[in-house]
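Prompt: May I have another protein with tokenized structure?
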Amino acid sequence: MTRTKTNGLRARGGRAAVIGALGLASLTLAAAPAFAKGAVDITAPHTAHVGKTITVTAQGNDDSAGYLHQLCVEENGFGEGWHQENCGAAVKGEARVTAHGTSARRGNLEFRAVLYGLKNAHDPHPVRLHTSSVATVRVG
């Protein structure tokens, strides 16, 4: 029995296809953006009484290089839409903020924390890096 040379050509073609696919995969992975790791946590009471102080605290961080971090607490309640309640100072590393307020009427108030990245302390165009989940306070 004799062997034919077509098997050798077929094997070389298969190897070339595998090498080409691996090269394409490595280029695709190299071009994909790297996502920064970070988190934002918010703490608020579940219930509050009308006229009493509501304290909301938040902390957040992100490992993106080159940014100062500023954390803001936003509120949504009684059809007003989301608006900023309080912002902390622009810091390197972990940012923290505490907001105090009262509600003059019954209903649900929603709070969230937003972590911004700034190029400097007076950056007019901050970049939104992370947003916390919504914390709902029932005012009764």
